Task: inverse folding
């Protein structure tokens, strides 16, 4: 019965069983992807042979469709009993996290944002740089043709918002990925080896932190052509000291634990102990910092773009869109408002998830 | 009594000093002993007398600085000098030739991996096994150390096991590469009394089965009596007495050993008030000159303020660091 149900409407059996989070996610994913295929068949078809980001979008679409289906099908088949053997701390943390409703809501928003960002070429009503008739379509309010209005160059705000999401989320994710990798490695090495190595690394950290980031960014961008990659690189290479400090602190306490001595006594190399034994144990706070960091980075990027130092026109970015709307705020409120809201909700979601992760990953805070 | 087997591990004049802000702590100050193949040697002494530092020095596990193994120290494993040997060679020996188990089974296992993964890591590193072979070997090892349902336990995480089981897992990990010498640093101190006995029994059984030598570090003379062949009594960074378990328990030569034994309850004299040794181990930064036990010794007399040498006594490898040692023990003739 529920098996047949999951074939038609994946997620529904889970929803009926009271697992609203998992059920709703699967159902929305499935229905959403199906709706895209149904409403824009020609665009999907064209994207199959289009540019790489269009193909990526199609791949995402189909994996969401098939994934939701298969997950629901298998989930119904699997018995739901509490696993007793081999419950890792990560699984305990996932259980604790999934009980935190606001954090799960934040996670759903983030997943949806990334899904939309990947699918943008298929769902956006217009090309982000397409200009309509400058005389009649300039700064038009909300309408059926332009759900979120148009800007002073008669471009569709919704489309630009969607493409802007790609930029913001990409920059946030990649810059934090770079900074977390560098910070974790350097912090773990400094904490474990100690002595002169620790001193050198941490003084370098102090140096990077004490450098005014905005001045550095402005200098670098003045020297080179501003581009997305430059921004990612600059943000990634200036944000890591925070992570390095967190990881070093964790490792300093972890290295005194006996399992590190036991690993040494078993003849494991320093590199192996750092990578396989210390870093996985220090990852909890890093994940929290990274999640909160993505939110911060998105704000930072928006700020840079607002100042004209970030993503350059005509590429859409939330920061530049807010800046564009600033001069016409009283006549065309929709121009700045929607990207502003987008920034707020995205960052809020990351912060909610970060807080939820912190509670879930710290056993002392688990109830 | 005499045993002509060549020593497996031979420690000569080992001095491990810590250079701290408070001064130089001579935690281990010139100790020597041998461990023969297949024998169990116990190192006993109060907290702070240098037992653990000794064991960590053998494997080169102390952070240097602040620790420093002083010039002239020698640790030979089957004739190979280990002091000053490169880190790479030391890593090859650790786990392979010499393994170690620790006091705290609660924190000696990495919380993020299953016990199976942790034991398998050593197997794959030292014995070059692939994933599947290692897993089969881990199941066998877990069964060998007396863990029931090894096929299920292999996928459990340390926090799901009891203290005794974790210590068994630690033993399995230490045994994984069939070491010639197992150093057990207070392996039962953190466990319940009933579990202690089980773990000691397991260690004795595995020692016999694999023919490995065991260096057992403990402050518990009861444990020593149960499993050791020979004993080294340490006090204030020095060896104060060595001998077979039988000799030491029957005729303790050094007043410190006698004090330790007097503080144990005895079956022969039930109801006897237990004696304790007055005072505590002195500060290693500032060992007393002369006999280091002098201030706490009931036999202290004139002459004890001079440095004491180990005096050879009758019996194989029997010695005591006390000038007032009973003359009958030196000559081997029982006092009238």
Result:
């Amino acid at each position: 019965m529920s098996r047949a149900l999951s074939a038609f409407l994946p997620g529904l059996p889970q929803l009926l069983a009271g697992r609203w989070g998992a059920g709703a996610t699967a159902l929305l994913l499935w229905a959403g992807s199906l709706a895209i295929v149904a409403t824009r068949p020609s665009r999907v078809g064209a994207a199959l042979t289009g540019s790489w980001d269009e193909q990526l979008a199609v791949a995402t679409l189909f994996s969401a469709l098939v994934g939701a289906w298969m997950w629901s099908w298998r989930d119904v088949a699997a018995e739901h009993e509490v696993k007793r053997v081999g419950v890792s701390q990560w699984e305990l943390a996932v259980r604790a996290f999934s009980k935190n409703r606001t954090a799960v809501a934040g996670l759903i928003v983030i997943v949806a944002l990334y899904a939309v960002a990947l699918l943008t070429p298929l769902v956006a009503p217009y090309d982000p740089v397409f200009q309509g008739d400058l005389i009649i379509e300039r700064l038009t309010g909300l309408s059926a043709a332009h759900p979120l209005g148009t800007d002073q160059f008669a471009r569709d705000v919704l489309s630009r918002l969607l493409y802007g999401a790609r930029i913001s989320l990409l920059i946030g994710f990649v810059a934090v990925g770079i900074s977390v990798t560098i910070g974790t490695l350097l912090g773990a090495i400094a904490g474990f080896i100690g002595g002169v190595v620790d001193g050198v690394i941490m003084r370098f950290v102090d140096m990077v932190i004490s450098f005014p980031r905005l001045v550095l960014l402005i200098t670098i961008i003045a020297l080179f052509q501003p581009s997305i990659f430059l921004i990612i690189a600059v943000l990634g290479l200036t944000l890591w000291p925070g992570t390095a400090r967190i990881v070093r602190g964790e490792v300093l306490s972890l290295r005194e634990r006996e399992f590190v001595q036991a690993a040494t006594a078993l003849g494991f190399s320093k590199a192996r102990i750092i990578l396989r034994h210390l870093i996985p144990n220090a990852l909890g706070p890093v994940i929290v910092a990274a999640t909160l960091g993505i939110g911060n980075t998105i704000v930072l990027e928006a700020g840079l773009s607002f100042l004209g130092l970030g993503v350059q026109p005509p590429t859409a970015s939330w920061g530049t869109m807010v800046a564009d709307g600033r001069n016409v705020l009283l006549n065309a409120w929709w121009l700045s408002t929607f990207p502003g809201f987008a920034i707020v909700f995205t960052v809020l979601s990351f912060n909610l998830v970060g807080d939820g992760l912190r509670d879930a990953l710290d056993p002392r805070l688990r109830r | 009594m005499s045993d002509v087997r060549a020593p497996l591990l031979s420690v000569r004049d080992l001095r491990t000093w810590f250079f701290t802000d408070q001064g130089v702590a001579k935690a281990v100050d010139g100790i020597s002993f041998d461990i023969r193949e297949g024998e169990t040697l116990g190192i006993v002494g109060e907290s702070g007398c240098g037992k653990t530092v000794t064991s960590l020095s053998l494997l080169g596990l102390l952070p240097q600085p602040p620790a420093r193994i002083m010039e002239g120290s020698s640790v030979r494993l089957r004739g190979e000098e280990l002091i000053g040997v490169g880190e790479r060679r030391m890593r090859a020996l650790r786990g392979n030739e010499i393994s170690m188990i620790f006091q705290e089974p609660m924190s000696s296992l990495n919380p993020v991996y299953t016990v199976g993964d942790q034991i398998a890591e050593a197997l794959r590193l030292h014995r070059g096994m692939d994933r599947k072979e290692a897993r089969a070997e881990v199941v066998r090892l877990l069964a060998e150390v007396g863990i029931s349902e090894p096929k299920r336990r292999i996928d459990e995480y340390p926090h799901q096991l009891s203290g005794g089981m974790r210590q068994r897992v630690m033993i399995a990990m230490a045994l994984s590469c069939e070491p010639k010498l197992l150093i057990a640093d207070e392996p039962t101190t953190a466990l319940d009394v009933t579990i202690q006995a089980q773990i000691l029994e397991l260690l004795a059984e595995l020692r016999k089965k694999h023919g490995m030598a065991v260096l057992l570090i403990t402050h518990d003379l009861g444990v020593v009596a149960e499993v050791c062949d020979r004993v080294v009594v340490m006090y204030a960074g020095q060896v104060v007495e060595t001998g077979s378990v039988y000799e030491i328990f029957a005729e303790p030569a050094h007043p410190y050993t006698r004090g330790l034994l007097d503080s144990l309850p005895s079956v022969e004299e039930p109801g006897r008030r237990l004696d304790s040794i007055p005072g505590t181990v002195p500060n290693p930064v500032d060992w007393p000159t002369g006999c280091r036990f002098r201030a706490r010794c009931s036999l202290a007399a004139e002459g004890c303020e001079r440095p004491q040498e180990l005096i050879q006594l009758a019996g194989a490898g029997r010695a005591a660091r006390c000038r007032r040692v009973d003359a009958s023990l030196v000559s081997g003739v029982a006092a009238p």
